[in-house]
Amino acid sequence: MRKPQLLRDHLADAFPEFNGRARDRLAVYVENGRVRARPAPGTSTGVASFEWAYRLEAVLLDFKGDANTVLALVLDWLRIHQPELLLSHEGSPIELQADIIDDERIDLQLSLELSEAVRRTEDGFEYLPEPAIDDSFEGIGDAVGLSGLVIGGEDLAS
Length: 158
What we know:
Number of domains: 1
Largest sheet: 5 strands, antiparallel
Helix content: 10-25%
Low-confidence stretches: none
Radius of gyration: 23 Å
Number of strands: 7
């Protein structure tokens, strides 16, 4: 699994207070993991690829910054590393819990349902890229304005 470390690095880069001696104030761990696998074509036992699926928990302890910044960073990270979560209209891509310590500090826990596809290669294993999310329509370029409307021989635009 590589996404837990990628998210940790993303947050630690944005908030240097989670590096060095305070590294333990940013915890990233996996819960409820599952592995989905399919046999290689033409075999009943060899595994050609599999997928990690898990709940990633990121906990920021004693955080003094703006929680909006954390959420914006995580949403930006999801756009690259799990983009389909941002397209789902069912549920939320991020579940959260917060413990308000005082006017300046909170403990913030974020939960994300993630997956990682892996393919076996001759040299080991390869993480497959996330599918590109394309919201355009095939064959349709930039929108062209309507210049007229004719129905039954009658020009309705004039």
